[in-house]
Design brief:
single chain; about 230 residues; Endonuclease III, domain 1; 12 helices; globular; binds iron/sulfur cluster
Length: about 230
């Protein structure tokens, strides 16, 4: 089926963005991929915090509880204590335990390797049935741990792609995932995802974007406005 003209324009812009950032930053590196269940728990821990706090909480959790069964069956307070460095521990700990119980009930064991057999869309849907697992968390597991096509949209990507004019200002997280997954090529997902996050951290920062040194400023709706900084 022929795609609407607007989609093709956006896809062309997405390709230019991918290529420009690749020229600037090169091939980005993701840390060693984790098994799907580990990646899922790690990504839940990463919500509303930075990578360092996420990693500290994950390591403490794994040190205190040698298996996911032990995390599932531990007193809630002990799990809260183990993941405290990730923040929102009172919320994240019960969600992680509920998730581990639900997976056990559905599959008889704590293992998400069966998701390797799923199509990307089916894996995304399956993961999002759990409380605390939204489109970004599911897409991170599918892209990096299952090595399948999904485009995770974190706060940096959401902000940068809105400013670029790639998605509407009004796009919510769910819409941003759908639109960006359709604009970027699946083979570019990991590179574009990681390099846009880097641009968001280093240049297109929330409060004061450094537009004058941004490699994307000629392709940016925000920059084209007269009142750009
Ligand atoms: S030109 Fe400015 S607003 Fe646009 S992407 Fe670059 S830093 Fe962000």
């Amino acid at each position: 089926m022929k795609q609407p003209e607007r989609d093709l324009e956006k896809a062309a812009q997405a390709k230019r963005i991918t290529q420009t950032l690749y020229q600037c930053y090169g091939e980005p590196h993701w840390r060693q991929p984790l098994p799907p269940l580990d990646e899922l728990v790690s990504t839940i821990l990463s919500q509303n915090t930075n990578d360092g706090n996420r990693d500290r909480a994950f390591e403490t959790l794994r040190q205190r509880f040698p298996t996911w069964e032990a995390v599932r069956d531990a007193p809630l307070e002990e799990v809260i204590d183990a993941i405290r460095s990730a923040g929102l521990a009172q919320q994240k700990a019960p969600r992680i335990q509920a998730l581990l119980r639900a997976i056990t009930e559905e599959h008889g064991r704590l293992d998400l390797d069966f998701l390797h057999q799923f199509e990307a869309e089916a894996a995304l849907r399956w993961l999002q049935q759990f409380k605390g697992v939204g489109p970004k968390t599911a897409a991170i597991v599918v892209l990096f741990s299952l090595n399948k096509a999904a485009f995770p949209v974190d706060t940096h990507i959401h902000r940068v792609t809105r400013r670029l004019g790639l998605i509407p200002e009004s796009a919510n997280a769910e819409q941003a995932h759908q639109l960006l997954a359709s604009y970027f090529e699946a083979s570019d997902y990991a590179s574009a995802h990681l390099n846009i996050i880097r641009l968001g951290r280093e240049i297109c920062q929330a409060r004061k974007p450094k537009c004058s040194i941004c490699p994307l400023n000629q392709d940016c709706a925000y920059y084209r406005r007269e009142d750009h900084p």
